[in-house]
Amino acid sequence: MSQTVEPKAEYQRRLAARQETVRRLDKQDALYANLRLVVFLAALAIIAAAIWGDDRLWVWLAVPVLAFVVLVVRHDRVIRARDRARIAIAFYEHGIARIEDRWAGMGLSGEGLAPTDHLCASDLDLVGRGSLFELMCLARTRAGQQALADWLCAPAEVDEILARQKAVDELRSRLDLREDLAQFGQGVREGVHPEVLVAWATAPQAFCVARARAIATLVGAALVVSFVMLLLGVATFPFIAAIAVAWAVTRPLSKGVRNAIAAIDEPKRELAVLAMVLARLEREPVASARLKALMARITSQGQSASACIARLHRLATWHEARNNQLFTPVAALLLWDVQFACAFETWRTRHGNHVSDWLNAVGELEALCSMSAYAYEHPRDPFPEIVEEGPFFHGDELGHPLLPSATRVCNGVRLDATTRMWVVSGSNMSGKSTLLRTVGINAVLAQMGAPVCAKSLRISPLTIGATLRIQDSIHEGRSRFYAEIKRLRAVMDLTKEAKPVLFLFDEILAGTNSHDRQLGAEAILKGFLDAGAIGLVTTHDLALARIADALTSRAANVHFEDHLEDGKLVFDYRLRSGVVQKSNALELMRAVGLDV
Predict the structure, then answer these.
(1) From 183's CA, which of 70, 209, 409, 533 has a CA 20 to 30 Å away?
(2) What are φ and ψ of residue 576, in 5° steps?
(3) Which residues contact 392 (CB under 8 A, 6 or more apart)?
(4) How confident is the model at residue 16 (pLDDT cuts 50, 70, 90)?
(5) Distances (CA, A) of 235 to 227, 246, 335
(6) What's the CA gap between 494 and 488, in Å, rounded?
(7) How many CB atoms neighbour CB 34 within 10 A?
(8) Is the four-CA dihedral 30, 31, 36, 38 of positive or negative sign?
(9) Contacts of 218 (CB under 8 A, 6+ apart)
(10) For the chain, how long is the longest CA-to-CA vector?
(11) Which residues contact 417 (CB under 8 A, 6 or more apart)?
(12) Is 5 helix (H, G, I), strand (E, B) or coil?
């Protein structure tokens, strides 16, 4: 789908409109505050006049009281509307910051959402500060954040990728939807914990609901009737007897009732915001099969998930009325706790098994909304073409999406059954590692269903393994070399699975001597190619670049160059064929003041 409106211009237009709304509502806020003060003073004047003057003036007190109530209601509406406008301002300011490459550190990092032993999440900056997750994520629920992180870390199947592409393209221009979801931001982000809701919803029933409801109805009726008889002076004994019976028959239920009441305490704080998110998603018209399927999942027995959850939240709110000192005696007569414990358990019986599916659907919808915002803000980034047969990776003018667009340098990469591997040589800081990250992160984008940072990309399903950010560990007594060969072993294990591997090895086996490094690297890379993998390996060791010759036509050498200008090293980050012919290590040492 073509996108005719430039995202930055549209964000600026909407930002200006919301700022004007805030200015207008600020004036209304001040006006209502002054009017409330005037009405309050008028009420005090009427009270004073009635006390020290004519008693008939008490009747006129109703006028300022009614006016004050109306002003409070309307003032509250103004305040809430202004709060919504301010959230929208922050939403569009953040969007403009992303477009202007000022977004790092402003969003959610996604820390803790990816597996700690993932074979490329850290290497490709999929999560963490300044990561792809931070750039993309607009999810307001924990379920949405986890879904996006899962999609970043695990490539989808071809049918799923294509379905997500259509859904993202459909949602791309839905700015109103994304702005509305932003309204639920902080409250939902800090509140909704899927594991808490699911654990509560699927826990075993605390007591026999049918028996408890029958007892509560009969005994509650007896208590009310006997209490009325007591008030009318008809008889005292029936009320005493009813209390004794109520104590005797509800005592066996007390533990189950207490557990049911206590169990709702934590989820009820989350239910209201979840119901709002669901209600907004349910109102959105959709056409793609993927979105229709997700919308169908947020229903239960013909009812929308938002309506079901909103009803449970209302029950929880009504139950809290027993905490009111004036209502407490009435609640005791009506066996309030038992009645509502039965209502909570009945809700769980009807809808509890659907809660997990609702949360998963909400998470996937929010992840798709995040990806649609990314697509909207990168209108020139195309969706990749997914090739069924592989391994295959043909990228034209590939760029790194986390680098500023003004300084980003793009290169083409072609890996397939003919040329399975590129050995990338070049000086320090010339762009070798960035090329690996560029290939990897675009493969991630392609296989999660998002647009890619390229002129075009054709890719087959691939599993990614990388060694770009391998570190030693003093606590585990592990050297960098040992950590690297452990990672290489883990990536090699991936080649036994059905999906071909895309390997991205940076300075392979740099932690050992040149002889062992050359022999070991050649054997390892040959093993990967024999197993059907494709990939890139970098080196600034020119001896290691000869590996491509040893692997005949399956591998090729490419390189980055640099040159001196006015005593300074200059890099153009352009990829060239062949092996690099020089090193810049001595120049870099001299540049930082070392006498070499």
Answers:
(1) 70
(2) -130, 160
(3) 415, 416, 417, 458, 459, 460, 534
(4) very high
(5) 9, 18, 22
(6) 10
(7) 10
(8) positive
(9) none
(10) 111
(11) 391, 392
(12) coil
| H or E stretch covering 73 | helix 62-99
How far apart are alpha carbons 316 and 308 in whole angstroms? 13
Q: pTM, whole model, 2 decimals?
A: 0.86
What tokens does 87 get? 């959230």
Going by their DSSP bridges, the two strands 303-304 and 299-300 should be labelled as antiparallel
Tell me which amino acid residue 582 is: K
Mean pLDDT across the stretch 17-29?
96
The torsion angles phi and psi of 565, rounded to 5 degrees, stand at -135, 115
CA distance 218 to 214: 6
Q: How many CA atoms lie within 13 A of 160 on its CB side?
A: 11
Half-sphere exposure of 30 toward its Cβ, with a 13 Å CA cutoff? 5
Structure tokens belonging to residue 521: 């690297």
Q: What is the mean pLDDT of residues 181-209?
A: 71
The arrangement of strands across the sheet holding 456-459 comes to 385-386, 456-459, 393-398, 411-415
352 token code pair: 């509890």
Spatial CA neighbour of 277 closest among 143, 146, 372:
143
Nearest to 125 by CA among 87, 165, 161, 152: 152
CA–CA dist 273, 359 (Å, integer): 13
- In this predicted structure, the answer to whether residue 415 has a pLDDT above a threshold of 80 is yes
**Of 171, 91, 155, nearest to 121 (Cα)?**
155
pLDDT tens, 89-119? 999 999 999 999 999 989 889 888 988 889 9
CA 205, CA 349: separation in Å to the nearest integer? 8
Q: At 408, which amino acid appears?
A: R
Does a cis peptide bond (omega within 30 degrees of 0) precede residue 267? no
Is the CB of residue 423 less than 8 Å from the CB of residue 461? no
> Residues 6 or more apart from 127 whose CB is under 8 A from it?
109, 110, 111, 113, 114, 121, 133, 149, 152
Show the tokens assigned to 487: 């990672």
User: Per the structure block, which two tokens stand in for 182?
Assistant: 């932003």
The H-or-E segment that residue 367 falls in is: helix 355-377
Q: What is the pLDDT of residues 209-265, one digit of tens each?
A: 788 888 878 887 888 888 888 777 777 878 788 888 878 877 787 777 777 777 777
Using one digit for the tens of pLDDT, what is the confidence trace for 509-546? 877 777 788 888 888 999 999 999 999 999 877 777 77
Tokens representing 444 are 């991630």
Distance CA 197, CA 350 (A): 15
DSSP alpha helix (H) spans, 114-172? 132-136, 142-153, 158-171
Q: Which position has the token pair 């991630």?
A: 444
- 560 neighbors 430 (Cβ within 8 angstroms): yes
Residues 459, 165: contact at Cβ < 8 Å? no
Placement of tokens 């027993």 in the chain: 322
